[in-house]
């Protein structure tokens, strides 16, 4: 009887461990691919190890048959001695030798049953029937039956007071190992090691090796490492020593100890020289190391060498090497620095490698990924179609996991948000929530919604974006809860994105939830937080959210929390990628607190220490504003000029340029300031500030300009003013179409748009007032048209809800309605004007307004209309209403005098001469320097005449003549014609 030694077994087990490394990649991250290690789901781990156990048993006979030219079967099965050659035994052994284990089982069962009943123990044990039967069961994956046979064998040996073979124990331990019953396997191996009888096989070192494998498969790398380290140093057998070192290599790769892995492989190579299988395994491990170090072409070279040239000699591990070969080429092809021709070549090699893996789900998935990468890299949409055709073939993907991976890839290839969302919904609907792919699907579904919401937000479609941010928050929250216990890094990312999705919903409760999510990530889920690549980002986001809660929700205590979080960002993570943003926001917060000196410290540090930061230009502008607030206007101007020199393309450059003069200087018509405005249009032709610039230019064109000494600079130019106001309207529509106006800035921009439109209408009306004949009519019509446009646009778009929310009759509406009525009056259309006045009166009543400028002017104009129609009593009534509505400081002095004059005219026509005299005296005795006082004196002279008091009338006219002016000329003429006085 000859026994297979564990020197030969160790050789097999080394290859067996090689399979384990390859199997660990079966459930790899489909978009990452390759040989890199990753944390998979418990279900995926179970599938990998179960396959591994089966592979261990199924490949053993063929492999061991090739060792040293023997025909010996897998240990611990014993070779048969030429005795007890029954017919059943011959058949069983023939099947066994042919590796046809299923048909061998019934014959061995009969022999084992007879052996158990026999009193002759030799008949049972010498032919090794129970061990062969157990082995056949194991090869057919009937591990429970195999264990039952071994248990019966041990029981029988105990009953007969015989010592069982150590090989049988060892076999039992391996079966427990295949079943992933790590504790039982360890118990068996420790029991063997406690024995002192190691006659032939297994040796103590071989059992230690098997125990180390058990610890490794159980994930207890520390215990496994101790055993393999000891074997690598003390084991005399090179094969077993080399196998131990290869396990140490695997653990070094798992723990990213690449230098250690390299050293161990060099040591292992010295032990395995001449053994082709182990040499190829080492090549495979070198490929894995190169892949992990992102040396993809080097990895491809090693994987290529690990695959036998003759496909007939391929084994399962050859297919794994081929699979990783494809991924190595695919990763190399995704290198953007390579020429397109080379990338095309590597894509083709990857595709070729995957296509050699016939009828493998993972190969079809990898091929689908290859098509997607190829489509993106080469900008060839036909490969998207190929990917869709391949991945939508449901018959290629049998397992649930593969079907889900195919859906994930199809979602990646989908061209629209809706198409992706539909596929992700299919993935997450009514499936096992414990699957790693389900949690990943929720995560990608959330990211898809978040990205779509972000795109809407960037297009200023703010309200639309909110519902999708809410959707994203719900999905990311679900992903977080599914992943937080086993996929910590991605779970942390999900919670961070959840916080951002809440923040962008722009609601107080959502902002608070965003802040709490960051707090939880830092404190409650510290284990997840530690897995993040950019933990500093969370401190920055927490500070940002707290700042917004303080500003927008008026919770001042959060200002302190914001400053603390941003300061922690800088102190805990020096010079992180969010440090510039943190410093800028800290400066802004101190600026809001009016601590301008402290704010300038942060802004100045940012500019001086990080001049290339994207925040540098903005920080420089903010520093200039702080200098202005501190009263150092010269320093502020110096900083702004510095900004324009160093950061001319900065988005605050236009602000800095415009802020070189204050608005008061622009409004007062400072010559240099106005030239600066005109130059702005050429320097910043796409700046939203063009709305303000053109508006200011338009206002300036409406005014006469004189020097301080009264010398004319230029007269007003209403036509140029109209052009400038028209430019405001044009730019508003342009910026709105380009989505350049943010939601926050929109109300102010809209207000400026309507103000410009109103000013344009008033400018046309002013030209009409100063014109005669056809020109007067034309410009009146222009004014009417613009006023109508204002009224129509505001009513159609309900813009008053934006311009004056909650105000039933805002001042701006009074302006354009009164302006429209005036335009009708200038055009001679009194009835149309009356309609507008009627509408205004109804609005005043509805708003319960009894005093006000435009209400007073409305009654005044109605009085003038009635006076024109010789309805003097109505006119007197309207003028009285005008005076009452204008009480206080509502009307100008000139307007009050005019109102009294018109009232006096009505009294005169109604023969109420005393009342007329009182009103005229009020005008004449006014301390206002106005030509209306001379006019009142002239009218009083007429009243004197009506009263028959000609002497007083003559004296009044003589007084007027002395004053000069138009009324002096009229008085002189009246004296000459009616009184004969020259």
What descriptive keywords fit this protein?
982 residues, mainly alpha, Serine Threonine Protein Phosphatase 5, Tetratricopeptide repeat, 49 helices, 2 strands, 73% helix, disordered N terminus
CATH-derived architecture of the domain at 534-660: Alpha Horseshoe
The strand line-up of the biggest sheet is: 1-2
Based on secondary structure, the structural category is mainly alpha
Rg from C-alpha positions? 47 Å
Query: What is the percentage of strand-forming residues?
Result: under 5%
Oligomer: single chain
If you average the pLDDT, what whole number results?
A: 86
Q: At the first level of CATH, what is the class of the domain at 534-660?
A: Mainly Alpha
The main sheet comes to: 2 strands, antiparallel
Briefly say what this structure is.
By secondary structure, the protein is mainly α.
What can you tell me about this protein's structure?
With 982 residues, the protein is mainly α. Among the domains are: 301-386, no CATH class; 534-660, Tetratricopeptide repeat domain (Serine Threonine Protein Phosphatase 5, Tetratricopeptide repeat, Alpha Horseshoe), CATH 1.25.40.10. The chain has 49 helices and 2 strands. Strands 1-2 form a two-stranded antiparallel ribbon. Strand 1 (705-706) and strand 2 (712-714) form a beta hairpin. Helix 9 packs antiparallel against helix 10 (204-217), helix 13 (258-271) runs antiparallel to helix 14 (276-292) and helix 20 (400-413) packs antiparallel against helix 21.
